[in-house]
Amino acid sequence: MFSKEEAAKLRKDFWTSFGKSFPRKWLLYNTKIKGVAFKFVADRKKAMVALDLENPDELVNMLYYDQLLSLKTLLESDLPEVIFDDEYTLDSGKKIHRIYIPYEGKFSIHNKNTWRDCYEFYMENMTKFELFYYEYEDIIKNI
User: Fold this and answer.
1) How would residue 117 be classed by pLDDT, with cut points 50, 70 and 90?
2) End-to-end Cα, the chain, rounded Å
3) Cα–Cα distance between 87 and 115 in angstroms, integer?
4) Which part of the chain is the DUF4268 domain (predicted)?
């Protein structure tokens, strides 16, 4: 069991190490669509790359989600593990629309021995996810 300070330091070290090991400018929050962002997720039990739809207007969220759902087959051709979840519950209890690829390997942000494989998962899958977005950006934005 780690103290809060130790756990916070491990989280910081994880992300710092990722940035130094794989320096790259990611799309993340720069989708130019309000409430639509790519995210890297890592915690004590899981890791994933995700596209979150969190616009304050639920109707707008649904429209973007439906646009992405219409492209599901195309996305699955590059990322067959992709999961579309129209009611993903965050740790805070908030429900969002999330499209994500879970890391299937053994992972814990508290175990440095699992970090390298997770970083490689991030690089491979977020790159594919971003390329998909860039290719279909005009369709996704067309709501």
Assistant:
1) very high
2) 47
3) 28
4) 10-136
Residue 96 pairs with which residues in a beta bridge? Answer: 88
Q: How confident is the model at residue 142 (pLDDT cuts 50, 70, 90)?
A: confident
Phi-psi region of 18 (alpha: psi -120 to 50; beta: other; left: phi over 0): alpha
CB-CB contact of 101 with 125 (8 Å):
yes
Mean pLDDT on 121-143: 94
pLDDT exceeds 80 at position 107: yes
Q: Mean pLDDT, the chain, as a whole number?
A: 94
- Order across the sheet with 95-102: list the strands: 36-42, 47-53, 95-102, 83-89
What is the C-alpha separation between 106 and 118, in angstroms, rounded? 9
Instruction: Give every CB contact of residue 109 below 8 A, 6+ residues apart in sequence.
Output: 10, 11, 14, 42, 43, 44, 47, 115
- The 10 Å Cβ neighbour count of residue 7 is 14
Q: Are 52 and 33 in contact (CB under 8 A)?
A: no
